[in-house]
Amino acid sequence: MSSLVLLLTIPLGLNLAALITTANDQFIYSGFSGSNLAVDDTATVTPDGLLELTNGTAYQKGHAFHPAPFRLRDSTASGNGKVRSFSVAFVFGIVSVYPDFSAHGMAFVMAPRRNFSDALPAKYLGLTNVHNDGNASNNIFAVELDTIQSVEFKDINANHVGIDINGLQSLRSYNAGYYDDKSGEFRSMKLISREAMQVWIDYHGERKEINVTLAPFDMAKPARPLLSASYDLSTVLTELVYLGFSAATGRVNSRHFVLGWSLGVSTEAPAIDMAKLPKLPRVGPKPRSKVFDIVLPIVTATFVLGLGGIIILVMRRRSRYTELREDWEVEFGPHRFLYKDLFRATEGFKDKHLLGAGGFGRVYRGVLETSKLEVAVKRVSHESRQGMREFIAEITSIGRIRHRNLVELLGYCRRKGELLLVYAYMPNGSLDKHLYNTREGQPTLNWALRFQIVNDVASGLLYLHQRWEKVVIHRDIKASNVLLDKDMNGQLGDFGLARLYDHGADSQTTHVVGTMGYLAPELIRTGRVSPLTDMFAFGIFLLEVACGQKPIKENAQGGQIALVDWVLEHWRDGTLMETVDARLQGGFDIHQAGLVLTLGLMCSHPLASARPAIGQVMRYLAGVTPLPELTPTDVLTLMQNKGFDESAMSYPDLVSSFGTISTLSGGR
Ligand SMILES: Nc1ncnc2c1ncn2[C@@H]1O[C@H](COP(=O)(O)OP(=O)(O)OP(=O)(O)O)[C@@H](O)[C@H]1O
Ligand SMILES: *[C@@H]1O[C@H](CO)[C@@H](O)[C@H](O)[C@H]1NC(C)=O
Ligand SMILES: *[C@@H]1O[C@H](CO)[C@@H](O)[C@H](O)[C@H]1NC(C)=O
Ligand SMILES: *[C@@H]1O[C@H](CO)[C@@H](O)[C@H](O)[C@H]1NC(C)=O
Ligand SMILES: *[C@@H]1O[C@H](CO)[C@@H](O)[C@H](O)[C@H]1NC(C)=O
Known about the structure:
Blueprint: E1 3-9, H1 16-21, E2 24-30, E3 38-41, E4 44-45, E5 51-55, E6 61-65, E7 70-71, E8 86-96, E9 105-111, E10 141-146, E11 160-165, E12 172-175, E13 177-179, E14 186-188, E15 197-204, E16 209-216, E17 227-230, E18 240-248, E19 254-265, H2 290-299, H3 302-320, H4 339-345, E20 354-357, E21 361-367, E22 374-381, H5 388-399, E23 409-415, E24 418-424, H6 431-436, H7 447-467, E25 482-484, E26 490-492, E27 511-515, H8 521-526, H9 531-547, E28 552-554, E29 560-562, H10 563-572, H11 590-603, H12 614-622, H13 632-640, H14 646-649, E30 658-662
Antiparallel strand pairs: 1-2, 2-19, 3-6, 4-5, 5-19, 6-18, 7-18, 8-15, 8-19, 9-10, 9-18, 10-11, 11-12, 13-14, 15-16, 16-17, 20-21, 21-22, 22-24, 23-24, 25-26, 27-30, 28-29
Adenosine-5'-triphosphate (ATP) binds at residues 355-360, 363, 376, 378, 407, 423, 425-426, 429-430, 476, 480-481, 483, 493-494, 515, 657-658.
């Protein structure tokens, strides 16, 4: 059914030399059966001819390249070695596990090599890594179909198309969609809709112009491109160029497919025959039996059909609200929310209610219909049932905790592959937004508020560690997990959630859960959490609030440096106060700032035993106990042990959020 046609057409011309070098190269794949694409990692050609780039396993990447490289440069005297015009068309489909969440995206790639073993999955899309992203020596041109918003790459949203040169920060990007030929209106499309779609990439060698166009599967190429950029690809592409695709998954898995592909150099890409393409795999239930559709109308009158219609409607409605409920959950009954209520509270999880997305999933604002209570609903995608019971038990027991500096967990709800956690709504959002995303004209968080919030978080943590009926370890203390109520009081949120991902599939794997930059060294080594690993993260958090900088900051050379090392260098040089957030313009209490910074250093001590416990920290903060001087030996140990583990740095998602490291430090 699928076929591969490789065309090499030589146009009639006068000059023989020109004939060969400007030969119009074309190829077309209508399905990939029998093709000899060079594939690696998870990429494979399925028996029915689909090119499957990722296979539904988390943290994977896959590539597929046309086996031979192309000579795209015009080597005639008049051509000056410029990259010739070319055009590419391909049909793709992203089959995600969840209807509204997918990872991470895919890209069409032109590169000097087809060995991408050094590239990372997740937000790097299998194209680059922490060290080489954006480096001009990559010589990569790519068009990304990105389904997760990566703030580091200044992504506009979680559903966009972008033109990438040498790195993942796009030269140009726009919402996925197309401009209607008749009305000229923009119609948006959802990349992860599990539907096939077509992309056209056109480059004009003379005008140095790149156009990218997207359209639904069955639609002709729209006249107006989605993206248009001026860029001289002669400055990017090498003499010989490999053409192909890359795709990657992160914590969430998805399957990325290419159905057909064509190329034309110095000519249009041949049109892909849609009728010949293989079909995307279906997800979800099988369609109703044909017998039901054909026989029923013949034998019964129309009202029976009407009745059938009503039944289907009711069933649809039901399945829309279907929950997962097991026997053991009875005891947690009072904490259980009806999915229907949460669905209504958030108007069907509409985007306009989206508060933000974190490593665990998306958070929506909602108002419960009956109580009119404002809530934040966190949707956590979670497939494995393993450990769920323990987790729910823990979550609900934690749910009984009431403290003014801990975000109240109101309850939970479970659906297939998904857990919904319902929290009290915090009108002022998370602290990181106030520290980093200050909009033009918005004042920075003043020192008094910062000091107040530090005290709030400390007393929340004291409660978890020492005052409640059992010791609760937070596991993920960081600025984005500190939420601010209507009076700007700090409340610690998300406690215990990291536990959900804590169950290793086998005893050989140590799962370290937390956020890069806040992970204590012994936690990375042993995977074991303790109140002191929380204290480490708390120390980093203190530095973050005082300095207004992320735990891993850019140094003057554009490289990355741990905030703790930077503060420490200033401490050693006697210029500690220079690390206080410059945006405060000197408006801070020197004594308090010194206290917070020094405590930050003490808590982020690489030796767990040297860190103070939270009760001690509270006494220092309150001025009950004077702060001890850091001794030169302390400083020496601090300086020798960098604040974070270098090997963890190369692991993709951890740099920005929560993640799992498997046997990362096994050999250490
Ligand atoms: N209870 C809440 N009230 C108001 N906004 C909230 C609440 N909980 C979360 N948010 C918002 O939703 C965003 C995402 O939260 P979430 O906790 O999922 O992500 P995160 O803390 O950035 O990352 P991680 O999942 O790794 O902890 C937060 O940045 C915050 O702005
Ligand atoms: C996907 O590919 C990876 C790497 O080749 C492999 O380890 C994994 O088992 C595959 N998963 C499935 C579901 O086929
Ligand atoms: C790809 O490159 C890596 C080193 O960068 C090398 O170890 C590996 O063998 C290469 N793979 C192939 C298939 O050439
Ligand atoms: C870019 O990569 C080259 C070759 O790998 C390397 O020598 C150079 O230092 C890199 N440049 C930057 C800015 O990282
Ligand atoms: C890009 O699109 C513009 C606008 O439709 C068009 O004028 C131009 O010819 C296109 N360029 C290429 C290289 O297709």
